[in-house]
Fold this sequence. Notes:
- By secondary structure, chain A is an alpha/beta fold.
- Chain A has 2 domains: 219 residues, Response regulator (Rossmann fold, 3-Layer(aba) Sandwich); 163 residues, Rossmann fold (3-Layer(aba) Sandwich), CATH 3.40.50.
- Chain A has 12 helices and 19 strands.
- Chain A starts with 5 loop residues before the first helix and ends in a 6-residue tail after the last strand.
- Chain C is mostly helical.
- Chain C is flat and about 90 Å long.
- Chain C has a 5-stranded antiparallel sheet.
- Chain C is built from 21 helices and 7 strands.
- Chain D starts with a helix and ends with a helix.
- In chain D, 40% of the residues lie in helices and 22% in strands.
- By secondary structure, chain D is an alpha/beta fold.
- About 4% of the residues of chain D have low confidence.
- Chains in contact: A-B, A-C, B-C, B-D.
- At the B-C interface, helix 6, helix 7, helix 12 and helix 14 of B face helix 14, helix 19 and helix 21 of C.
- Chain B: Pfam families: BPD_transp_2.
- Chain B: One of its GO terms (molecular function) is branched-chain amino acid transmembrane transporter activity.
- Chain B: It comes from Thiocapsa imhoffii.
- Chain B: Its main location: membrane.
Amino acid sequence: MSKPNPIKTTLLSAACAVALMALTPAQSAEPPIKVGVLHSLSGTMAISETTLKDTVLMLVEEQNKKGGLLGRPLEAVVVDPASDWPLFAEKARELLTQDKVDVVFGCWTSVSRKSVLPVFEELNGLLFYPVQYEGEESSKNVFYTGAAPNQQAIPAVDYLKDELGIERWVLAGTDYVYPRTTNRILEAYLKQNGVADEDIMIDYTPFGHSDWQSIVARIKRFGSEGKKTAVVSTINGDANVPFYKELANQGVTADDIPVVAFSVGEEELSGIDTKPLVGHLAAWNYFMSVDDPNNAEFIETWHGFIKNDKRVTNDPMEAHKIGFDLWVQAVEKAGTTDTDAVQAAIIGLETQNLTGGTARMLPNHHITKPVLIGEIQEDGQFAVVWQTDEEVPGDAWSDYLEGSKDLIADWTPPIMCGNFNTVTQTCLGSEAE
Amino acid sequence: MVLGRLLRDDRGGQAMLAVLLLVAVLVPILNLVVPEGNPWHVSTYTVTLLGKYLTYALLAVAVDLVWGYLGILSLGHAAFFGLGGYAMGMYLMRQIGDRGVYGHPVLPDFMVFLNWTELPWFWQGFDMFWFAVLMAILVPGVLAFVFGYLAFRSRVTGVYLSIMTQALTYALMLAFFRNEMGFGGNNGLTDFKDILGFDLTNDTTRIGLFLASALTLALGYLACRFIVTSRLGRVAVAIRDAEARTRFIGYRVDHVKLAIFTFSAMLAGIAGALYVPQVGIINPGEFSPLNSIELVIWVAIGGRATLYGAVIGAVLVNYGKTYFTGAFPEAWLFALGALFVLVTLFLPKGIAGLFSQAVTWWRVRRPRERTARVTP
Amino acid sequence: MPTRIPLHRGIWISSLLVLLCLFAVTRVSAEGSETVSFEAALIDLSDPSFAVKQAAVDVIAASGDPRAAALLQALAAGQLYVRDADRALVLVSPSAGDYRLRDALDGSELGEASRREVKKIAINNRMRTQLRTAIAALTLASPDPAVRLRAAQQMLGDPNPLVIQAIRDQLEEEENRQVRDYLTLSLALADLQDPATEIRLRGIDRLSGSLYPAARNGLNRLLSAETDPEVRDAAERARTHIERMRSLNEAAETLFFGLSLGSVLVLAAIGLAITFGVMGVINMAHGELIMIGAYTTYLVQQAMPHWIDYSLFVAIPAAFIVAGLMGILIERTVIRFLYGRPLETLLATFGISLILQQLVRTTISAQNVAVQNPSWMSGSLQINPALALTYSRLYILIFALLVFFALLVILKRTALGLQVRAVAQNRAMARSMGVRSGRVDALTFGLGAGVAGVAGVALSQLTNVGPNMGQAYIIDSFMVVVFGGVGNLWGTLVAGLTLGVANKLMEPWAGAVLAKILVLVFIILFIQKRPRGLFPQRGRAADG
Amino acid sequence: MNPAARKPVEQLRESMRRDRQWRFMYSTLDLELDVSQGVILYLEGLHVSFDGFKAINDLNFYVNAGELRCVIGPNGAGKTTMMDIITGKTRPDGGTASFGRSIDLLQLSEPEIAALGIGRKFQKPTVFESHTVFQNLELAMAGDKRVFPTLFARLTGEQRDRIHEVLTTIGLQELLDQDAGALSHGQKQWLEIGMLLMQDPQLLLVDEPVAGMTHQEMDRTAELLLSLEGRHSVVVVEHDMDFVRSIAKRVTVLHQGAVLAEGSMDEVQNDPRVIEVYLGE
């Protein structure tokens, strides 16, 4: 049973493939800088994560066209954690110890991030995490380029409240940590804004829930009591199709009861018959339809790379783009790929958003983002109907939750802490060491 | 001596244990003594990987005991494995203490964020290692006992039983997904710090866990051998082949089934308890019915009704998975699927069957086959 | 069409429009634009800013121009485009490949145009609401009852006196029952606001027994303000009456939901009832056969994009054949070697299911695919204002029963059925009596697989179609078959519907997840009581 | 109280008998077999019907201790069903079945009945095919058959001797290490009878022992059964008249679930009803 580690061969092959793909003009003798890609290529999450894998490969290729980094070529190392959470931790360890990658771009679900977090902290690696998430976390080794709740949920609610005059709220979500946290934050926020208990309905469903009859009926009743009602949906990927279909069939249209979703983007829509969804909303930090030169260029390169101009771009892709740019800048600034140096260098760096404005890496390892509300159109794209005037800084610890309103994250001296309690002036938990 | 008796006519087992011993001795040396960079160095990554395989192997042995010898196809052993895992996970969570992100002295992070004020009753006592281990064995045991008592008493057999065990693990999965259950919902339990005061991230700790797994596997294997070589084991096979007859010569079939089923469940629980600290996370995915089916397939591939076959099957299939998921991410499911089909079609006795056939070929005096023919 | 408005009603409507118009003008000037004329507003419609567009809509609505209604309807329906060349507004209908253009105002043909040349006028929720109100005002007198109905619904509960007046006039003319309901309801609601007690009482009297949510809300609003005790308890009584009737309807609704969920379970399980129940094959690839059916639907729709409404009638036989052939293939290549070893069929078919999934991932795509609902499948059948049955569910319920009885007939009445049962009971005997058991096995399995495929067509209308969809149904299917009693079709039907209803009855107080768990636990305990399911099979064939 | 009410009350009282209230409160071992009347098996007024069809219809049947009784009868006469009732496989709709005078068989489960010393051989021989002949006998051996004793059980010297003794009785001594699955049809029959003997039962129920046997095998079987007479009570159900004549002293003829005739072979064969039944077919 004692055997030479199999994975080496694997990754070499994968790596070679990529290296070939990325014919760098600077074929220097310098050892390449390794970029790990940790996205599921099989299993349930493959639906979303495969695209992100391609995105990183594209970014690496582009960078190599520019002559690599520090005069060294970049080399992507791809592994498949197969939507299996323990496997995520295993593969992360593999990337960091076997392949000695300098940075990792990866993960989608919260549980996968939670699963790899200890590994990155133990081996002091770098992870760029591109998906909107529930917050309540800030690790020295992780950079959160997706939206924190205050960069997606709260602005969306503000829009519904102020622009559409919504008075009753249905918070519907799949039963896992992201919806739970988001809804608890929203509940607290709404109550602060004087919404009464009986005007908030919270409902959780299991993953891939497919029979929405009763719930939609309840929503319909809830909405038929005279006050303008909206649904704030944190329903996870697969369950959305039957949900929207049921809404449409029971005659709930976007103008009676609009649904604003946080997990439905261009990629998801491409797999849905959009007729029943038209007019419903989504809150993101990026829409493919945004008219901006950077965005146009990005879409063009993407279509060129994936060799299919039907493919859409979406928010997590932009997040990877931003993360990658910032990392490149940081490495150049630090002159090395050493983790601590890059961590020190990256804070405060800025890069262009694809939707205009700039993204800045904050001391809490989150970034500033504009928030856009889009309405779903027949063609599966979003028409932007509202957007924040300036970028919103990502907030690691929500101000609306009991446990965390006193916490801040700041990875610059003197605090250097992911969960610093401003009241007791102490750094809590393990990050203290 | 006992060991001798247990391993008589069990060449496969002897070989397996020998290899296990070899690995258990070599790996720590190659990992700790041999410096990194040296081609002989075994990375900690590989060590944990092996540790994981060993726990799977133990699980497979447990399944083979009930399926191979008792003829009960349990599609619910992942449930017992998972429960054992959760028991250990709860202990590890309690060990985190106030090092959680919210710095709460007692409550694990996910409880703080669910606004829970104090520890629910079923989390009491899990700060003690011995208690956690006890629970890792008892909880699956009790569940198996209750389920088995109902099922075997009312003579639920064959496919019905299999589907019921599947329902059991499915129900558990749904239950553990619920955050109200107080087991961390979909995220499960993770971010463990240390076990018995040893830092989990420490190489020696990992080696320790690896050795523990190896030892437990060996002991578990011998325990199962002891059962199958005893008269009880022969009664079990008798039940598998002719249940009614066994009843008529005066054995309480339901009692025999219950005893062995429960024991097997406990074994699975132990496997789970060893699995969690090595992979660093336990979540409801472990209860997924597909996992249960998959581990039945390990046994089938290794060779039903040969305990060492189960070990081989578990290690091979998982090694294959680790390899294929990296080698050809797009095609590995084809490979796996084809493997299952071909083995059932052409190797009804699995790999172990191949061995014994090979042996019988060149051995003049045919050694008695204890591996009974596979009958549904 | 508004040309045919009788004079006196025309006056009212135009005065109503005038009011809207004034309203609009103030609004528009607030927007900082000076446009008031109809033509100028037309130009504004193609403006990117939603604010400007809204202003323009108000103007158009108020202009009293005969073409307004048609124009706004086109805008609401998303058919209104602007031609880049001359910024002229055009009505667009998709034609082969490209667009067919008609002048938005006089409807004259403008010939073909490519997608590049025209740009759609995007609207948002606000504009939709605004448009509906405006259109309602313009079309209340439309000759088409359907249009009038929509208008009446839209105006429901609008306190604006002019609107009320318009409604009153329309009511005199109106002969369509449904429209009358709405109009009278609006008036009743108006009555509630009336200072005069007896008028309020009249309103309450009219409202009591009406199931429209608006009625109950009206009463609630009244009760929150009302002081007069007489009116109060009249309103109270009316409300309790309404509530009782509503709760009755809700019960009926829940029952329907249950049956519908049940029918889905039955559909998913019925194929398994044959492959597993009759042939004793633990077919883990069953879910994937369903998936194949669903994907067939998708491909059929791809093949006939302009005939979505008929696609299902093509898809059903197609799915049956494709899945059926796949089933026969599986049976001939793998399963036939495994008869009498049911537990090993489980392992083999599980392998097959993995292969089929990955096959779809690689050949079609890892993403879900979009299967569209035919128009006749969407929407719902309004029994009464408080109870509506969604067509898709209704048809699928019926469809499930059809499939079930079709199978029953095949198994009980046809020669094949006879042979199937013969082989199932005693293979050797059947053989010796000249039944070609090999052929029968293949056909039986093919039948089961085909039915699974047909189920896939139905499911594609309810949920998403992707490589993993099979996994979602396999376990439930086995539960249903085992619960019903292996080898008994009736058992499967009863079991499926029972579980569906039980699930839905529990869902309101237990929540979706807990309900499912409870159902599972119930099944486990039930099987302990009756080890062979609801309708156990007699004789030796049952001994698995 | 009125007589109508009495019967339920009786039933209640019966069901409330303290010693019968909880299954675990009494074990089968303390039930003493009482053959003081010289009768070992009483079947009285038994009724069984399978959805309408009366398989057993007011059957009264007695077996004396130590006798060898043959039961014949056309198909569907209820022979096998009778065996099922005795061994607890089938519960009758009415009537009583007791082992000796005191032990009510209808209260007991199959293993308990087996433990009391009623052994049964099935029509179709069922032995444990993946065990050796020796192991088959070992498993059948009388003794404590609860789980843990079985787990730690070791063969003692005299147990071995007992097994070998039986091996010789059934004439399989040189095949003791062979897998039972590899035995011939006849050998399986004998092995099964051997397994019965290992339980040293009071009463053996032997169902069609010679079906599909060669003549030599039949003779061996006949000897075997005769050799049991006296030590055990044996009930043999058989179709083959020659065989029955070769072993029977008393013969019972079942017809339509009831006893049609009883007596020596000759008496029975000359009984007009019997002839009518057999020729009637």
